[in-house]
Design brief:
Helices cover 28% and strands 23% of the residues. The chain contains eight helices and twelve strands. It is globular.
């Protein structure tokens, strides 16, 4: 099954200066952007527009009703995460909720089986706990944190490198720059080719479509399916019955074995990290 995508509009405004010192919002870099998302926006375009230093977690999946559920969580901005249904904006999560959703899925992956095996239940709970909205304005800080995809990329491959130059703000730009220092890749052209091929994979496509781009760097077999992981590209695909059911970035299967500390949050009640109860796993701030 091939899933079509409706083209929408994403408005990006390049900020010409940092936030005012009197502002209550976090300090922003000179080139930080603002992203407006509404009912005309397309989930895939929003994913591509979110700076890698601000993205913590994103996935695309097919739910039990055959809908495409898309999700992206942020390390900064006033909004914790956005939820899309069939590419259209549906709702939001707070930062506490987004952290709980991230930590609990990571915990489940590390201690039991990959969260995508119960993706339909996680998605149903996500929709139920999302706050419906028709428009969101996201002001990114332009600064990375230890949970951001940018930081995960740097620390996964270059722990001994203190600085990298010439990086763009998009995940593709970052990974292209990171690749220039990788000793196990023959050429940056090959990396670009694989990255482009993987970026064209959609939930609902066949397992062979993924393998046709590149054989997985890591495979985890679970009851009812398997995870085809590409840690070098910060992405993985959960496949069941030969069909891609979940596309996850970054790779939870890899991080759960190599950097499980990313999923840690103080005072988490880990016993509540289940699809129905994850929202209550983190304490509410007084």
């Amino acid at each position: 099954m091939h899933v079509g995508f409706i083209v929408g509009v994403v408005s990006i405004l390049v900020m010409g200066c940092a936030a005012s010192p009197k502002s209550n919002k976090p300090d922003r870099s000179f080139n930080a952007i603002t992203l407006s998302v509404d009912w005309t926006s397309n989930a895939r375009q929003v994913f591509e527009s979110v700076p890698a230093e601000s993205a913590m977690d994103r996935f695309e999946m097919i739910d039990s009703q055959g809908r495409i559920i898309s999700y992206v969580a942020f390390t900064d901005t006033d909004t914790g995460a956005l939820v899309f249904v069939d590419q259209k904006l549906y709702g939001t999560l707070s930062h506490r909720e987004a952290q709980a959703f991230y930590s609990c899925r990571g915990y489940a992956t590390a201690t039991s089986t990959h969260w995508a095996r119960e993706a339909a239940d996680w998605a149903a709970s996500l929709i139920e706990n999302s706050k419906p909205t028709i428009m969101v304005n996201l002001e990114f800080s332009g600064k990375s944190t230890f949970q951001s995809i940018r930081d995960v990329a740097e620390n996964s491959f270059f722990k001994q490198i203190k600085s990298l130059f010439g990086m763009g703000s998009s995940p593709l730009g970052i990974l292209k720059s990171l690749n220039s220092a990788r000793s196990d890749m023959e050429t940056s052209g090959q990396f670009d080719k694989v990255m482009k091929g993987l970026s064209l994979i959609r939930a609902g496509m066949s397992e062979s479509s993924v393998a046709g781009v590149m054989k997985p760097e890591d495979v985890s077999f679970v009851n009812g399916g398997m995870v085809m992981a590409y840690p070098g590209y910060l992405i993985e695909y959960y496949v069941s019955e030969g069909v891609v059911k979940v596309i996850q970035q970054p790779s939870f299967s890899h991080l759960s074995r190599t950097r499980a500390s990313l999923f840690y949050a103080p005072s988490t009640q880990w016993s509540l990290c289940t699809p129905p109860r994850w929202k209550d796993a983190l304490p509410v701030a007084p």
